[in-house]
Amino acid sequence: MNSSDANVQFAICVFGEADGDLETWKVYRVLPDEEAIAVGCLRVIDESGEDYL
Kind and range of the H or E element at 37? Predict the structure, then answer.
């Protein structure tokens, strides 16, 4: 494992909206995003490769 792999973070969606893009109880990779963190959000990548705030 290289050092960039050690910083990978994941999040679990615990509440999804019926018409939302994220699925409840699914694990998503978290992208580093300082602006998202500043407003209390996370940026994640879904299984299609799209990122969401």
Answer: helix 34-38
pLDDT tens-digit readout, 6-52: 789 999 999 878 887 888 999 999 999 999 999 999 999 988 898 98
**Cα 22 to Cα 4: distance, rounded to the nearest angstrom:** 26
**Distance (Å, whole) CA 29 – CA 44:** 5
3: pLDDT strictly greater than 70: no
- Which alpha helices (H) appear in the chain, and where do they start and end? 34-38
Q: How far is CA 31 from the centre of its chain?
A: 6
Closest listed residue to residue 26, CA positions, set 40, 15, 42, 41? 15
